[in-house]
Amino acid sequence: MTTEEQTEHVHGYTSEKSSHLKRLRRIEGQVRGLQRMVEEDKYCIDILTQVSAATKALQSFSLELLDEHLSHCVVEAAQRGGPEAEEKVREASDAIARLVRS
User: Fold this and answer.
1) Could you give the dihedral angle defined by the CA atoms of residues 20, 25, 28 and 34, in that order, rounded to the nearest 10 degrees?
2) Residue 77 CB: number of other CB atoms within 10 A?
3) pLDDT (tens digit, 9 = 90+) per residue, 9-67?
4) What is the end-to-end Cα distance of the chain in Å, rounded?
5) Which residues contact 26 (CB under 8 A, 6 or more apart)?
6) Rounded to the nearest 5 degrees, what angle is found at the Cα of 48, between the Cα atoms of 45 and 50?
7) Residue among 79, 71, 70, 76 nearest 99 (CA)
């Protein structure tokens, strides 16, 4: 893909970009809260509860992003066919495998 094509390309998440950024800022706040809890010597179980909440928030975000990738990037590539379609399906499969392992 040329630089010009990359500039013109719209990602599947683009329409939800502001919403995604808001969610990521919230998750960032959760992680900063975890740092504060450790600095303040909070109870281990309370920290673990917050780790679980942050982990679930990231998992939820990643699943939404994956859904957008499948419904936009993969579908468009599949409609065009050829090696690009195979590459997008392989990328999606690899991403799903990484999510399942995490």
Assistant:
1) -120
2) 19
3) 667 677 788 999 999 999 999 999 999 999 999 999 999 999 999 999 999 999 999 99
4) 31
5) 57
6) 115
7) 70
